[in-house]
Amino acid sequence: MRTAKMFWRDMCLGTFRHGARFLIIPLVVVLMTAGFAEYAANIYEAGTIAGSGTAADYYLYVMQGMYIYKFSPDSTFVIPISWFMLHIGLAYLTAYYPCKDYNEYGAIVLPAGGSRVRWWIAKMFWCLMTVFLYYIGIAVTCTISACVHGAKLSADFSVDLLEHLYGDSMNYVSQSDMILISVLLPFAISVLMTEVQMLFSFLFTPVISFAATCGVYILSAYYTCWWLPGSYTMWQRSSYINYEGVKPMSGFVIALFGLLCVIVCGTLYFQDKDILD
């Protein structure tokens, strides 16, 4: 019960109070989907595809990230700005509150909660729920954008439209596989990234932790490696789409193992932490 109360307190102070930061979502979605809607409308009017897209198509376009980058003397590396803004927006949303709350109210809240472990678990649930609300915001905003542009209100993606954008591989990916690599896996990795960032903000500083998160995402855009978690948030990098991509199961294993490490390390850290220091 005390954990639930601390969790709700965190939601009020750490998420709802800073609701304006969620505006990064409509900003990115509007910028991205305007061009996508025009492209879909043009090829629909040309009779190339059967419809002008669905809400799922808009979501996939926003969450696509970038194709596997391969260095060559003639190539130019450009970070996918929209993808980067979405994930850094989430990282910034969760970067500073935990340490600020601990420094200002830790000496009061921790004894009142009856357990330092409960306090840490409440913070982890806060991270989880904030990420969940963030992804709900992305889905809702994409749906609204799709309706505004006359797309079909459907959770199924349009194979013919996406084939024009991403190639023939879209013919061999099922709807359930797309949900796995574009919704569930990015969500799991985003939870991991925010939880690790929170732990590092206590071990070092929030600024260093946030900068490290940004660095991981930049490296993930440049390199497609199984050990760089940002690669799993780009469904174009999935082995379901490109045989050279990362395997979804590896991403889930990394997320699970990483979260277990965060739980253990955070618990050990706060058990020995002097709340008056």
From TrEMBL:
Keywords: Membrane, Transmembrane, Transmembrane helix. The chain crosses the membrane at residues 20-37, 77-97, 125-152, 172-192, 199-229, 249-270. It comes from the Bacteria. This is ABC transporter permease.
